[in-house]
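This week, study the protein below.
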Amino acid sequence: MAQEITDSEPLVEASDVSASWQSEKITMTRRAVLDAIIRCFLKLGYANTTTSKIATEAGLSRGALLHHFPSSDKLIEATVDHLTSVRIQHYRKLIQAIDPHASNRIDLGIDAYWQHLISDSYIAFHELIIASRTNPTLEKILLPKIKQLEEEWLKNTLVLFPEWKDAGQVLELAMDLTQYLMEGMAANRMTMTHHQDERKQRLLTYLKARLKVIFELGVQGRPIGEVLHL
């Protein structure tokens, strides 16, 4: 016979509830610290971000910060992991919002990628990439994450354009053209001192037109040499 449960008997041990709350609190605090780091990168840049400034931004004491992240290496690793996750989730949402049957998927895909490149998470990640040029430890942490992001970008591209999966080097050309042109545009927005929106739109319009030609040839199975000379 099943034991009757009355409302006077706890369904969960108090110790279990306490442990669960402590775990959730730790997760929330760590997330607050990582979000504070992103804000510091955006406000101050990587070079001017210190543990004291991060703690202030997160509303913690420096001691509390060091309790959760006892070394700078641990803090950087967690930050890179966090930013990578935020970037992946952000870009997925942008791509998932596009109708996979839309006739202007290329235009919409480029617009989505541009929105990603001007997001806080991308700008903060770019701060780390610049800093890694003279920081071998940071470079070692970043490289596998950059590879992960590129794989994610390819995966999302093929979700949106499944007909391009056999385009081979032509697909690689199109993705390289898109990435290096658009990331260069995003990194150099500050140097466009006049007619910034007009110049940006002109470049994106040109890119969209070239991609339509490249992908049409890729789907047709044209060799990369032929595509390069068009």
Summary: The CA atoms of residues 198 and 204 lie 10 Å apart. Residues 73-228 form one domain. The first helix runs from residue 14 to 44. The radius of gyration is 23 Å.
